[in-house]
């Protein structure tokens, strides 16, 4: 196991992870609202806007799935911070370059192992 990050880089990336987690949790609250089932017998809502809401709902559900996946990655990265394996590739055990983590702080794998 070879982590290539300095303590300062590690601390910065952890702050960034927590910041992104907070932002994601906030945005997921709105996605949750938008992804709720569409009320089908609202007399005040015309057919066209009902199709709009269905469309929105479908898009929101896709977004929600992506957000849920991202949430899991962020939580997992924070867990690795706790146990001291953050910045170590989960596939090959090599160090993940700082440049990669700077762009994707939640990245669990190095550039060579990512699918
Ligand atoms: Zn790797």
Question: What's the SSE blueprint?
Answer:
Layout: H1 7-34, H2 47-83, H3 98-103
The structure holds zinc ion.
Zinc ion (ZN) binds at residues 89, 91-92, 94, 109-110, 112-113.
Cα(first) to Cα(last) distance is 21 Å
Q: What portion of residues belong to β-strands?
A: under 5%
Which residue ranges are poorly predicted, with pLDDT under 50 across at least 5 consecutive positions?
none
Ligand catalogue: zinc ion
Can you write the helix and strand succession as a string? HHH
Estimated helix fraction: 55-70%
How would you classify the quaternary structure? single chain
Please summarize the sheet with the most strands.
Answer: none
Average predicted local confidence, pLDDT: 89
Rg measurement, Å: 19 Å
Coarse morphology: elongated
> Structural class of the helix and strand makeup?
mainly alpha
Which short descriptors sum up this protein?
mainly alpha, 115 residues, binds zinc ion, single chain
Molecular structure report:
With 115 residues, the chain is mostly helical. The protein has a domain of 77 residues. Helix content is 62%, strand content 0%. α1 runs antiparallel to α2. It is elongated. 12% of the residues are buried. The model has no long low-confidence stretch (mean pLDDT 89).
Short description:
This protein has 115 residues and is mainly α. The protein has helices spanning 7-34, 47-83, 98-103.
């Amino acid at each position: 196991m070879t982590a290539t990050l300095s303590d300062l880089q590690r601390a910065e990336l952890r702050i960034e992870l927590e910041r992104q987690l907070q932002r994601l949790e906030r945005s997921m609250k709105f996605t949750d609202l938008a992804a709720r089932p569409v009320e089908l017998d609202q007399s005040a809502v015309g057919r066209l806007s009902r199709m709009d809401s269905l469309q929105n709902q479908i898009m929101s559900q896709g977004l929600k799935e992506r957000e849920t996946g991202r949430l899991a990655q962020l939580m997992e990265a924070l867990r690795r911070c706790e146990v001291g394996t953050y910045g170590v590739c989960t596939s090959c055990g090599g160090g993940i370059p700082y440049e990669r983590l700077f762009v994707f702080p939640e990245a669990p794998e190095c550039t060579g192992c990512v699918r």
